[in-house]
Write a sequence for this structure.
């Protein structure tokens, strides 16, 4: 059974700072997805990481995947308030995704 | 754009009632999913389906059933609602094929969610 662990679960950071969210998973998975959820809203796809060593960047967010270490990271550069949301990682298991608990990010002015 | 719609945004039902949650997607996706989301527990998979009339149990199927009579529609049924089924319910769909530019295999697209309260 695939288990997914994100840390930290809660992250409060100042605008302009950098930080990394970690996603560890327990069994082999060849692709991983990152989603964002704003309060009261549904999930929106952010990144799709399709292979070992994959790196994707969009604005101040960069995601990477190390399938050998079973680790994905979501790096935030120079955070701004608009990035405040909950971020989920989800490695695949067949056609299923298994979601982490989510990291609730709050960016303070 | 992929569109996944859910029949209600908010629903209030009484204990013991039969509850139907409907989900419709317009992108010809084979796979459809029902999750519930609770604070501190993330998203938990209730049931999924990868073809019409096919269904598979997820991690927490007890107290729920599903129906998929048409490819675009996936219904979640609470046979006898209980207060511990108060939750946010999210539907999603995906395809194992590259059907459309910008989509990826197995990338799930979510509906807006239904917040169900059982009193």
């Amino acid at each position: 059974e695939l288990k997914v662990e994100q840390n930290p679960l809660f992250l409060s950071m100042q605008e302009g700072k950098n930080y990394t969210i970690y996603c560890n998973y327990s069994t082999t998975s060849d692709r991983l997805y990152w989603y964002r959820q704003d309060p009261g809203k549904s999930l929106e796809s952010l990144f799709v990481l399709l292979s070992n060593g994959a790196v994707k960047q969009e604005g101040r967010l960069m995601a990477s995947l190390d399938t050998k270490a079973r680790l994905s990271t979501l790096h935030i550069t120079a955070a701004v308030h608009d990035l405040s949301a909950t971020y989920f990682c989800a490695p695949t298991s067949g056609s299923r995704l298994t979601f982490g608990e989510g990291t609730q990010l709050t960016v303070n002015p | 754009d992929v569109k996944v719609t859910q029949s209600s945004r908010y629903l209030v039902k009484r204990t013991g009632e039969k509850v139907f949650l409907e989900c419709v997607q317009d992108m010809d996706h084979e796979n459809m999913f029902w999750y519930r989301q609770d604070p501190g527990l993330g998203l938990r998979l209730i049931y999924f389906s990868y073809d019409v009339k096919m269904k598979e149990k997820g991690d927490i199927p007890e107290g729920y059933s599903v129906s998929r009579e048409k490819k675009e529609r996936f219904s979640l049924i609470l046979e006898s609602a209980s207060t511990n089924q108060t939750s946010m319910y999210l539907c999603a769909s995906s395809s194992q094929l590259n059907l459309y530019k910008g989509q990826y295999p197995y990338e799930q697209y979510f509906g807006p969610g239904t917040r169900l309260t059982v009193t």
About this structure: Residues 67 and 75 of chain A are 17 Å apart (CA to CA).
